[in-house]
Amino acid sequence: MKRKYHRVLLKISGEFLMGNLDYGMDVKTVDRIANEIVAAHNDGCQICIVVGGGNIFRGASAAAFGMHRSVADNIGMLATVMNAIALQNSIENLGIQTRVMSAVHMPTICEQYIRRKALRHMEKGRLVICAAGSGNPYFTTDTAATLRALEMECDVLLKATKVAGVYTSDPDKDCDAKFIETLSYKEMLEKDLRVMDQTAIALARENNISIIVFSIKEKGNFEKVLTGQGRCTVIS
């Protein structure tokens, strides 16, 4: 079926890369995600990716145990670079050129994120993986994803999670949690639905970019969402 979007920002949480592990990275899970991304890319969709680092280190959690938040977030940014490089390897094993672009300068490992260079890479048919969040502490990778989606002139921001979308409460903890198909930015902020942090939602609202929350756990769902067929929550 015909795609609804020409260029998208895909946000992948680090926690999802754990697969069924308690910590770290499950290579089979990374490879499966890479296959879905490449399938969409080969279908003509331009994809920019922002990856989290929660499978390795969570800055906010470390700060809660006494580590200075700036220090903790800096470590978390490095974790996202590790995930980005692993995802790059899996995608390039499938024959697609990628560029990891980091908000933190580390020239021997990856390119520095520069908006115009990132746009040029995408125009040349390369996948761009943005790492190290926004390069600043106190900002989550969700906020970085919203920022990059705006900078890269994406049609939509796709947040990949373990569940089908947004629920009234945590479906893993509450069997009575109800699925929500559509939400406004205002409702997300007022109800404090913690699918994304409020800074990310406020930034999306101010710049009028829609957010789609969907499950990447379901095989093939990424392509379904791109054609408007997959189960998901649309925030607009």
Structural write-up:
This protein is an alpha/beta fold. The protein has a single domain, classed as Carbamate kinase. It is 38% helix and 19% strand. It has eight helices and eleven strands. A nine-stranded mixed β-sheet has the order 4-3-5-2-1-6-10-11-9, sandwiched between helices. It has a two-stranded antiparallel ribbon with strand order 7-8. Strand 1 (7-12), helix 1 (27-42) and strand 2 form a beta-alpha-beta unit. Helix 1 packs across helix 3, helix 5 (141-151) runs parallel beside helix 7 (198-207) and helix 6 (185-191) runs antiparallel to helix 7. The chain is globular, with a radius of gyration of 17 Å. The mean pLDDT is 91.
Question: What are its keywords?
Answer:
236 residues, globular, alpha/beta
- CATH homologous superfamily caption: Acetylglutamate kinase-like
And the CATH topology?
Carbamate kinase
Which architecture does the CATH hierarchy give at level 2? 3-Layer(aba) Sandwich
Strand percentage: 15-25%
Shape: globular
Helix percent band: 25-40%
Topology:
Blueprint: E1 7-12, H1 27-42, E2 46-51, H2 59-64, H3 69-92, E3 98-102, E4 111-112, H4 115-123, E5 127-131, H5 141-151, E6 156-161, E7 166-167, E8 179-180, E9 182-183, H6 185-191, H7 198-207, E10 211-215, H8 221-226, E11 232-235
Parallel strand pairs: 1-2, 1-6, 2-5, 3-4, 3-5, 6-10, 9-11
Antiparallel strand pairs: 7-8, 10-11
Helix pairs in contact: 1-3, 5-7, 6-7
Summarize, please.
With 236 residues, the protein is an alpha/beta fold. It is built from eight helices and eleven strands.
